[in-house]
Design a protein that fits this description.
By secondary structure, the chain is of the alpha/beta class. The protein contains ten helices and 14 strands. The chain has helices spanning about 10-20, 35-45, 55-60, 75-85, 100-110, 125-135, 155-160, 175-190, 280-290, 295-315; strands spanning about 1-5, 25-30, 50, 65-70, 90, 115-120, 140-150, 195-205, 210-220, 220-230, 235-240, 245-250, 255-260, 265-270. The longest helix is centred in the C-terminal third of the chain and has 24 residues, at about 295-315. InterPro entries: Gfo/Idh/MocA-like_OxRdtase_N, GFO_IDH_MocA-like_dom, NAD(P)-bd_dom_sf.
Length: about 325
Amino acid sequence: MKIATIGTGFIVERFLDAVKQVEGVECYGVYSRTEEKARTLAAQFNVAATFTDMEVMLEDENYDTVYVASPNSLHYDYVKQALEKGKHVICEKPFTSTLRELEELIALSKKKGVFLFEAITTIHLPHFKVIQEKLGEIGNLKVAQSNYSQYSSRYDKLKAGETPNVFNLEFSGGALSDLNIYNLHFMIGLFGGPEEISYVPNKHENGVDTSGISVLDYDGFFATCVGSKDTTGENFVLLQGEAGYIHVKGAANTIDKVEIHTGEGVETIDLGQNENNMVAELAAFVEIFEAGDGNAALKLLDHSATVMKFLEAARKSAGILYPADEK
């Protein structure tokens, strides 16, 4: 797998660090609207090519896969352009602004016969797979809780009168799409889609959610998902069953350590996951790519589409609308 990246933020740097650690993948080129940023990033990771023209980049046949890490609202357009050129695509979360956009991109990827992946760390982490295997040990689930709270430096800019992309509805921003989406991937990855979902946010005067609580109504239990960019907190996931509970240390995007509490005692699981939480997802994509495993890729897309369905429903339940909703 040879990759060209779109974007120059910290998440791209983290992705390129993962590329260095995963066999079977390399970065051929980086794209930025400004040549200086592209050259700086390329030099940092010893990447051969730089691009400032999207059309030129997508016409280049020296690579096969595009990694998209632009502002959320631009995901759809960039992914669509890449797919139309026959490129495989890895797109950062949230996949798109709406379910309709994602369904269109999935259909296009099938038509073109190329892979389309959502770069979501949670479901690929070794500790998540352990939780899936151990869930039955705590009996019938009654309560599920998750919290991912991380005070954003951009929140200070928002309070000072600026409008950073992540707090801008025009760019499909907000705490739900930026942080709480990891909690939704965790819960839906374990339990599937809920019967209903709702979202109660704290909103800035511009209408964007800076923090909030989403409630997922399952048959027999509720799951609460807290995502906050205007406070700090203890990040965790807690799954409470009639025979015990599973305590995840760390947020749903890292799952640092897992404790399983039952009448038999406490089992602590720490597999020594890679410090870069993007390594596991990239390794999974490379494995699917090399095997040409279309079924595995479609299974991941089905999961992403389910998450997007309920992410959009949660957002709209709170009256948070994006420009993409009007298309």
